[in-house]
Structure prediction request, 295 residues.
Amino acid sequence: MTIRVGSAPDSWGVWFPDDPRQVPWERFLDEVAEAGYPWIELGPYGYLPTDPARLGAELAARELRVSAGTVFTALHHGAAVWEATWEHVARVATLTRAMGAGHLVVIPEFWRDPVTGEETEPGHLGPTQFANLVSGMDRLGHRLRDDFGLTMVVHPHADTHIDTEENVSRFLSATDSDAVSLCLDTGHYAYCGGDSVRLIETFGERIGYLHLKQVDPDILAEVLDQRVPFGPAVRRGVMCEPPAGVPALPPILDAARALGVDLFAIVEQDMYPCEPDQPLPIARRTRRFLASCGA
Prediction:
């Protein structure tokens, strides 16, 4: 088996398609290649060029390849949001497939605003909303496979309804394993109290993709104690440069290797917003650290 390491716009402070505080997409591509990563994710749709010919040329010039696209969905709202959701997902899936990638990372919609932390809906799903989430994700996973040949990997994320160990286990147990795989983000799972090694050992057949990330345990304890939302917590530096935080990444990589399947392991260090000169030195050091772990 092979673990293919890459990075993503997130590690360059990119959360939105267009934001003056974010580095230009050309600089991201230049620097991610300079840091030694051959694989990238597309990031928020519209940040990188959406014309396949232009994006393909830009990637080829830097010897970069795409591992996955990313979308946010709010399928717990049920049938009323399906058509709009699919319209957006299909656009992202079309570009993802055109770039030769085989995965689409699906993140549940936040229940708090990602920047301000303002609560926009309840943080817990009722029975009907959970049933909507399960049926919607199953439908989306099958449709992506049938129409685009993509594997859907659902990303547990802080301030979403798929976050804690309990909620992730409940979600995986309820969804169709033929349609729904998991993108295990080691930082978000630790942020929400989960054990990544235990998750890999328990639901190994559902692990389809990795995001490598760490949290600063001291800042995490502080933000949890003060009930700080995720966006403001990122600005405090809760997501930190490996290997300074938790969870330890070598045991996770060992557990992933034991699955005996090929996996992407994409580095993501949430740093929105950040100074433009900050990401590249971190990316270089992180790449060297992962190489020392055999990735």
Observations:
- The chain is about 40% helix and 15% strand.
- The radius of gyration is 18 Å.
- The first strand starts at residue 3 and ends at 7.
- Residues 60 and 72 are 27 Å apart (CA to CA).
